[in-house]
Write a structure and sequence with these properties.
The chain contains 5 helices and 12 strands. The protein has 230 residues and is an alpha+beta fold. The longest helix has 19 residues. The protein is elongated, with a radius of gyration of 22 Å.
Length: 230
């Protein structure tokens, strides 16, 4: 979906799209089951909590935290019955302090829930803080992450017979391809390019060269695109 440039951020790190990611940690016989899910709205983030309350209906606590938006403008946490400040806040800090690269903390659009089954041994406030923080951090260690970048979408319309080869050549040159559409006679290829005049001009020259001057490149809107982490 094309979005307007309503964010100061041009990229951030998030979970790979798909199913939720789970990880379990045991601390002094208490089970801490962490579930991570990608979410871009508060409703989606809270849906994870509600679903896990139903799934783990016999658990004592379903603590949660989430960070949303390219600028990470929405941050929420909930202790769900644990002593104040010992669960939700440590979970939230594990999300917002997560480094995607040395010195870079930009994780967002992530909802985290830790389901706790009490093991009969009190952990104390410090023990709870460490357990909930480590639960989220350990889950992030094994969850697949991607870079989400705001890119300029540029379109090139070419005959159907030439589209496949052009797309392959552009991919081989390192360009990120967005959604392709098909008309009666032509295929519209969409490239996702860094929103810089020099980058767009270079891509236009590449398309002209690959099509012997028969196809151009037209910049349109911007779109958030998932790309692999470097």
């Amino acid at each position: 979906m094309v979005q307007e440039q309503d964010s100061r951020a041009t990229s951030y790190t998030t979970l790979a799209a798909g199913e939720e990611f789970r990880h379990e940690l045991e601390v002094k016989r208490s089970r801490f089951i962490t579930v991570l899910r990608r979410a871009d709205t508060e409703e989606a983030a809270r849906d994870l909590v509600n679903g896990l309350r139903r799934e783990f209906h016999d658990a004592r606590h379903h603590c949660s935290a989430f960070v949303l938006g390219p600028d990470r403008g929405i941050q929420r946490s909930n202790d769900d019955g644990e002593p104040s400040g010992t669960a939700g806040i440590p979970m939230l800090e594990a999300l917002i302090k997560r480094e995607s690269a040395p010195g870079a903390t930009d994780l967002s659009d992530v909802s985290a829930v830790v389901v706790r089954y009490f093991g009969g041994i009190l952990l104390g406030a410090g023990g709870l803080v460490r357990a909930y923080s480590e639960s989220v951090s350990s889950a992030l260690d094994v969850a697949p992450l991607v870079r989400r970048r705001r890119l300029r979408i540029c379109e090139s319309s070419v005959p159907h017979a030439a589209a496949g080869r052009l797309e392959n050549d552009l991919r081989a040159a390192g360009y990120v391809m967005a959604e392709t559409s098909y008309g009666a006679r032509d295929t519209v290829l969409r490239l996702a390019i860094a929103d810089e005049p020099a980058e767009i001009a270079a891509a236009a020259e590449r398309v002209l060269s690959l099509t012997a001057g028969k196809a151009g490149l037209t910049p349109t809107g911007t779109e958030w695109i998932d790309v692999p982490l470097p």
